[in-house]
Specification:
homodimer; alpha/beta; Rossmann fold; 6-stranded parallel sheet
């Protein structure tokens, strides 16, 4: 057994059995070892931000880490922005980054770089293996680091000689530390606080937006009169008709300020106090009203599920009836040109039960979030770190984790170009993903932002940085070129036909929605 | 005047007048200022590795830095791998990276990250502006840092408030330090060495591969019997019929070792001693033969042009006749299927005078480098840092720098997918670039490397990471979708027709060359 095989077998032993990758020469022994360790599933991405974003999506849906396989510093660098997003999602990921053989390091060959330097800003744990005999143990440590609550990025650097030298053992999985719990006194204190007659927001993030924890949060809110709120960009939330209603914190700071106006108490459940996404001249960054009391039920690394269960007991809320999302039965016309609202209506109407929606529609979906929530029950995944080009890879990884579920990616054309290579992996793995590209032919959100930051202009110089209309992207050609069946919709009716057809079939599809 | 305008005007005053960018909200004042500072040309890239790679290509051909405009840490991160390549090319670049307003920094908003941490591994100079009143001066310092010999990466971080606050001045350009010169005694010593009867290699890199310096190097070699050699991946070299003949150091270590066997003296001109690109089990990294004497005429930061001129005097070589490349007149058949060799033959035959060739063909072009050199005189640009996805952006930037010259990009399909977004910028700017995609449907070089590293396998697991054939990429669709007229060639005859047609017209084109 060589180091690469020891590494792979140790990852599998630690229950990491999917590897998204794009290898190079220094990773060839790892690649060869994939034939010896059949339990590891290799998934190729044609650019590393697909690889890392897929690992994020996989982690969000599988609840466990995948490995990535990246080629030296530049390969890692190409995947950093989606590691940034993954870190903001608290997604556990184990990066395996090849390096030059240790004997080669001192020659500063063309591909040499400061790999650990690239890794540190996005990693909670970084280690470089020093021997083939330790890589198995290093892998087990990396998995444990990634799985540390609430989920971390672990980066293991693998000099080529540690992959090709002889190894002798497979490392056993390491036990995880018990999950940190909110103290009973904290539960009691928060229960007391909730009994006070204060206008209260319960701001929830992470695992507490899923399953029984979400229901518990809903019942606590119903029992105590608190308002149940989630961050603008929750990594994952269970939504849809009959699911617990959770208000979303608005994206724009001034709207969020208005939304929170009058709040006297904020209770954080795995969340942090709301702040503005960007700063603007003469606008506040801190969104909690002055004088509002801030209390913490759980920090992000603490067990929000257990804390909510205990809090539900403490407030005696089991019989409270949580507010749930109701299916809307409003009718709308299918005549005329396509706009973002009608897309949201059509998606909402036809989304199948238990789908996964990955949203990077930005200006085209932000206003229709509530509407989308009235669809059949589904998981909704958000762009957590603000680095665009996230959600097509996230869908790809979600598709590997949940092959039986329909996935819908809602994405702006500007975002979609960032990691367009994702479509090829979706085709190769025959994932059941439908990508809706909002073709508004510009970075529309930035047109708004240009005004909002107080820099009004519509001159040619500024627009040259914001408009994608010369030339227009032809998404049907791009999608087909990458192996994904693609159609264009210019009208509401055409979009509905395309979307219904896509929902009725399995496999990757793309719909270019031409916005009027 | 606000900080953004001061910055832009100061960049222009320092002779930086092209800005490749992809901005976000935190850069909106910079974007707005583009309307006030018309001397700055904005060029949009749809992913940041296009932006940074274009700045590399621009620098190689314009001989001066462009600015990049990048959105916070993730925007910079997306462009890091081509900054790695640019640094290995000694290309001067001034990165402007937006950051959150300083008042916003402490809130750790979703897009916050360690920007300086991302920047450091690829930057020779990093600074974060602290006030709108200093950004102009900071810009002048950044330009000076970028222009420090042999060319550096300077990264200026621009918190949003330093762009939007009031500024009062435009910074004057800073004088550069005089270029470091080889000592006269070094010239004399090297001249003496060259008179010794030793088998000598003159290894040349950088500016010495251009113009009169290259001719001087050729005459020195002719006069003294030294062999004139360049690195495998010279950033830029003037080649073609009638240009000075320079042997290229072979890519694979064992071939390079054989190439250098018997060399008794190595003289470095702006170059470093040759090392293997990768390490392999039981193969050497250091390629210079044991016992070979290594002498330095110039280090990379020293003036190789002046040193070669002085050395030519010292060896009294002005009347020596340099060895030049001869136009080959071999005939070849146009019948039958397409292969990499016939593409090289056709490109060589039809390349127009004064073209620029950007090569990332890897396994498809490495064997035909000598053949390509017999084309009409041209500049040849290489992938310097080994991070694939470099040369389509480099061509894009070269096209901005040299709008009157025909550019040909030779690129493998695996590489082309990395920064495929480049094609859109080529279309938008109507650049005269012809992209030849070698469609061999795999990372072919890695198939070779898998064997070379001693990890033979052809199992499904390994091949899943190396083959791009399920599904096949349709480059005509992809190119058209991005706005570039694209054709497919399945035969030698079809490729010749497509290439001749592309050479006869202006504007971006793509030829998908299906290799048999």
């Amino acid at each position: 057994m060589n180091g690469a095989e020891s590494l792979l077998k140790s990852l599998v032993a630690s229950n990491v059995d999917v590897c998204f990758g794009n290898p190079g020469t220094s990773e060839m022994h790892f690649v060869a070892a994939l034939d010896a360790v059949k339990e590891m599933r290799p998934v190729l991405g044609l650019q590393e931000n697909v690889v890392t974003g897929a690992a994020d999506g996989y982690a969000r849906m599988a609840g466990k880490p995948a490995a990535t396989l990246l080629h030296l510093g530049p390969g890692l660098a190409n995947g950093l922005s989606n590691l940034h997003n993954a870190r903001r999602a608290s997604s556990p990921i184990v990066n395996i980054v090849g390096d030059h053989a240790s004997s080669h390091a001192r020659y500063d060959a063309p591909l040499a770089s400061d790999i650990a330097g690239f890794a540190r800003p996005v990693s909670d744990w970084v280690h470089s293996s020093t021997s083939a005999r330790t890589v198995g143990a290093d892998a087990a440590r990396a998995v444990r680091a990634a799985r540390e609550a609430p989920g971390q990025i672990a980066t293991l650097i693998l000099p080529a000689d540690t992959a090709w030298d002889a190894a002798e053992s497979v490392a056993a999985p390491l036990p995880l530390a018990p999950r940190a719990q909110a103290a009973p006194s904290t539960i009691d204190r928060i229960a007391d606080k909730l009994r006070a007659d204060l206008r209260t927001v319960l701001l929830v993030r992470g695992e507490a937006l899923l399953g029984d924890a979400l229901i518990a949060a809903g019942k606590i809110a119903a029992k105590t009169g608190a308002r149940l709120v989630c961050d603008t960009f929750a990594p994952r939330i269970e939504r849809g008709a009959s699911r617990v209603h959770v208000d979303r914190l608005p994206y724009f700071g001034e709207v969020a300020t208005e939304f929170l106006a009058g709040t006297q108490m904020l209770i954080l459940v795995g969340a942090r106090p709301p702040v503005s996404f960007f700063a603007y001249p003469d606008k506040p960054s801190w969104l909690t009203p002055d004088g509002c009391e801030v209390n913490v039920l759980t920090h992000p690394h603490e067990d929000s599920v257990a804390a909510l269960t205990a809090l539900l007991d403490a407030v005696d809320g089991h019989h409270a009836e949580e507010s749930v999302i109701k299916r809307e039965t409003t009718s709308f016309s299918l005549n005329g040109g396509l706009d973002a609202e009608s897309i949201a209506q059509i998606v909402t109407m036809h989304l199948p039960l238990n789908a996964i929606v990955a949203d990077e529609g930005i200006s085209s979906t932000l206003p229709y979030y509530d509407l989308l929530g009235t669809a059949a029950p589904h998981d909704f995944l958000n762009l957590t770190g603000g680095a665009i080009g996230s959600m097509m890879p996230v869908s790809t990884g979600a598709g590997i984790a949940c092959p039986e579920r329909k996935i819908v990616t809602l994405i702006g054309d500007g975002s979609a170009m960032y990691t367009v290579q994702s479509l090829w992996t979706q085709a190769r793995e025959n994932l059941d993903i439908v990508t809706v590209v909002y073709a508004n032919r510009g970075y529309k959100v930035l047109n708004n932002e240009l005004r909002r930051v107080g820099a009004p202009t519509d001159g040619a110089g500024a627009m040259a940085m914001l408009e994608l209309n010369t030339p227009s992207l032809d998404w049907v050609s791009i999608g087909q070129g990458l192996g994904v069946a693609s159609v264009r919709a210019n009208s509401k009716r055409a979009f509905e036909a395309a979307f219904v057809s896509a929902m009725a079939q399995r496999g990757p599809r793309l719909i270019e929605a031409i916005l009027e």
